[in-house]
Design a protein that fits this description.
This protein has 732 residues and is an alpha+beta fold. Helix content is 15%, strand content 43%. The protein folds into 3 domains: 4-118 and 144-164, Arc Repressor Mutant, subunit A; 174-443, 7 Propeller (Methylamine Dehydrogenase, Chain H); 446-720, 6 Propeller (Neuraminidase). Helix 1 crosses helix 3 (65-78).
Amino acid sequence: MAEQYWIGGFFIDLSRNQITQNNRSQTIAPKALAVLTYLAENRGKVVSHDELFSKVWPDTVVAPNTLQRSIAQLRKVLGDDGKVQVYIKTHAKQGYSLECDVRWDEQTDSLTSNNHQEDINEETQASNASSGDVIKAEPSSSILRLIAMVAGIFILGLIGYKYLTPEQNPPLTFDKLRSLTATDDKEFDATYTPDGEHIVFHRYLDKFCVNKIWAKNINTQKEIQLTAKWGAYGRHSFSKDGKKMVFLATEPCDQPTTQQSCYDLVSLDFEKALESPQQPSVILQCKNSQVKNPIWLANNDIALLQRNSDRWKLINYSISKDQSNDLYDLNEGNIIHFAYSAREELIAVTSIHNDGRHYIELLKSDGGILSSHQIEYPQEIPKSLPLYPSFDPLNNQLIFSTGRQLFTLSYEGKVSKINLPFSETMVQPEFHPDGKRLLMIRGPYDSDIALMSLNQIAETKPPTETEQIKLNRTQSNQTQLKQLHTYSTIERSNLGESNAMFQPGGELTAFLSKRSGETQVWITDGKETKQLTNFPMDTYTSGIDWAADGKSLLVNANNLLTQVFLDSTQKTFPLEHPAVVLFQWNSKDNSALLLQRVKGILKFVEYDLNNLQSKEIADKKVLWALKSEDGQLIYKDYMGQFWRPGPVEAQHIKALDKQGGKTKAFVIKNNMIYDINAENQLWSYDLNNETFKILGEVGVEVDSLTDVNPTQALMTVQVSAKKEVVELSVSE
């Protein structure tokens, strides 16, 4: 390959990484020049993107917009732009071509020789000038050229820095917010249709995990019910032409073996459903593996995440062939989430690698890896927080929410905060196809802490499920709460209170609350309430427990264990791997039962806070775990089954089968297990004499049992869980 050549009036010097025209030189990134040179070698021919990637970036994983940036840089130097394409022409979905004469070898050598001879002649003329009558000596042409060259190098250095620095997208700003589904119901999973004319969302029946799918015409504001019956439907995706939808329908397995729920991949004819509600048709059934997030690809296949054991992989399911194949699977690590851009036919995957760090991968539709970059978390986001981004269709980036904050994520892993004029908690951002607005889900979860005597629970007879459904459709949540039960509410705000626990040997109750705007630890003696912590915005908490002496608490906040004392002082324990859930703290030997994420995989461990070491306890997928006062370990798996360690293998407590279906957590006090089953019955199980007893019934509004003492129970009860679809407009 020649080191020097001409394209029209531009002289390209690869040895100096320069393009020169009319004695003005510009320094260009070597890879950009390599793109230009390969196009020059194939002048007049269309060179595909893949061919350019393989020739210029062989055996290297790069972002797809790297080539676009190189083309943009070359066009700027050559005087082209996206509309006027004199030199480099774009061929949609094919590649690029160079549409100008190229002169190589002899022509180039001759021209450079002539330029050199002109320089010699100028220097000779300067030396032959008469000096006797000169009053003021003029600098020679060569000196002027040298000065200009030095100045040019400095200026070009600045220009080169600009070009070599990755391009930054202009910051997104939003200036308008409007409600699209202002009802008393709970809506989730909102998206636009591919033509942008409708929004489609899921409307849930309060306190029951069933929903119907609805559409709303953006122009006429008309709402249309799409599914005929209630179902446990998951997030939906549209076919490329917008005529069909695909989503998951979950139902209890007839004979559960590895999981309680079976997953049906179903489709719905959107055009017919706009005329009258339809029943989804089953495409695929999964009974022994968990699947989620099906997305319809442009080639009419469906991508979705599948988990057989403790690891997720991205698979491709062909409807026409009725077969699947792996698109992306991490041997060590785990996939968190994936999104798809129909416009770019690009898949973005967020994952955790074997180094425990979070990455963003870009894939082609066939699973080919285009780039992989570590995500650079800013100070506002905990470094262990999983990200669930969606595509920004106009700016070659993604967008995600942490609750009250919104961020962009570049293809290279850069995270930038979006300044919002709104302070509400909003999640699930999804852009309109035109990229000028997006949907989000807004609405707080409101729960109270209720205190109820065990005798009162034994006497309560809540309504049947049918009666409760009627109440949900005819009365407000507050009216339901009063009609179902008379609770003694010890803590109430219009935001969430939860995880209440009695102080050992004291009169205090500790709990978590969002009443100050963020989740914080609070304590109350029944008369006065005090905030103990001041965690930052969007803090995620999962687990809280008292010390045995009642003088401090251990809290899992942002995947870190923090000991909080009653005077609000704190002590944080360093962890090699993030704590996902804190089950229990044994302050006497300073150990904790945890779920930890190790290389993306959840591990059930006992963590020694003194030596900062963890020991894996069981290889099952554990939902909740506690130790009794005499040291017996009890844990509940994802099948709702209870287990205790045995001499050789874990022992199944068969007496508790089908008793752990109401909530994930259970309570152990005085060697007794307490939990609420799917029939809303509070029960106990004596670990010593292995006796089971139904203590009474609670209402369907009870979210969880959080603590018990000899005469009372603390519970989290739902007041409302209103969620609505809102639309944010991008500032002009």
